[in-house]
Write a structure and sequence with these properties.
mainly beta, globular, seven-stranded mixed beta sheet
Length: 123
C-alpha cells in the first residue's frame, strides 16, 4: 500500500485545514487507515483512524475538533481539522494497514506510511 499526504500549511489559532491522503496498491476489502502526528522533540502520536466499515476513533486531544473521513471511490482519506491550536503544530502522517483484524491506535501496527505534511498553527 502506498500513501501520499497533501494539504498541510500554516493557519492562525482557531482556523481550519483539511489534509488529504491518496492511497493505492491494495485491493483488500478490509483495511485500517489513520493519521498520526509528530511535533518537534516529541514522539509520533496517534490522531485518528477509520476502518473499512467506516468506524472511527480519535485521540482525546482532537476529539470534537478533527474529523476523519474517506472517499472510497477516490481511495482518499481526509482529516478535517477545525478550531486549531498551537499545540496541533506538527508533521502529520497518513498510515495504512491491511493486516490488522481490528484497527488500533498503535503506530507500530501500521506498515505503510507517507512522507508527512506540515501543519503550523500560530497564536
Amino acid at each position: 500500500v502506498q500513501v501520499v499526504e497533501s494539504g498541510g500549511g500554516s493557519v492562525q489559532t482557531g482556523g481550519s485545514l483539511r489534509l488529504s491522503c491518496s492511497a493505492s496498491g491494495y485491493s483488500n476489502n478490509h483495511y485500517c487507515m489513520g493519521w498520526f502526528r509528530q511535533a518537534p522533540g516529541k514522539e509520533r502520536a496517534f490522531v485518528a483512524f477509520v476502518d473499512s466499515r467506516g468506524d472511527t476513533y480519535y485521540a482525546d486531544s482532537v476529539a470534537g475538533r478533527f474529523t476523519i473521513s474517506q472517499d472510497n471511490a477516490r481511495n482518499t482519506l481526509y482529516l478535517q481539522m477545525n478550531s486549531l491550536k498551537p499545540e496541533d503544530t506538527a508533521m502529520y502522517y497518513c498510515a495504512a494497514d491491511i493486516r490488522m483484524f481490528v484497527c488500533v491506535s498503535a503506530l507500530y501496527e501500521y506498515k505503510s506510511w507517507g512522507q508527512g505534511t506540515q501543519v503550523t498553527v500560530s497564536s
